[in-house]
Amino acid sequence: MSTPALGVTWSADSHGHTVVSVTGDVTVSNAWQFKRQLQWLLLAQPPVLLLKLNDARFVGTLGVECLAAAYRRANMLGVDMQVAAPASGAGRVLHLTDPGDPLLS
Asked: Which of 63, 57, 51 is nearest to 8 (CA)?
């Protein structure tokens, strides 16, 4: 059984917000790619970076570390980074890490 490939697509909405859709699994084999893509998107310093994780079936520990690092960098840059609709597996991992984290609101 093979792991679904990581897919990361993005677009800007009419307010200049960057909407990022993540599909597949974020695993040890592709976390570095995921981190580079998030860092690259943050360089533009959009007012809001919205990560849609509803099609991400799994976010492993390195994926969570990537999200946390991106969130810290977003704060430094003045970008409001939000996670929307994490799939059940990804959502459970994120809530286990810190159920009160504003990243999940």
From this structure: 51
Give the Cβ contact number of residue 49 at 10 Å. Answer: 24
Tens-place pLDDT, residues 20-32: 999 999 999 999 9
56 pairs with which residues across the strands? 24
Q: Cα 15–19–21 angle (5° rounding)? A: 165
pTM of the model: 0.80
Partners of residue 11 on adjacent β-strands = 19
- CB-CB neighbours of 98 under 10 Å: 12
Residue found by looking up tokens 């200049």 in the block = 16
- CA–CA separation, 54 and 22 (whole Å): 8
Three-state DSSP state, 97: helix
Length of the chain in terms of residues written? 105
Which CA distances in Å does 100 have to 49, 60, 103, 104?
A: 20, 19, 9, 8
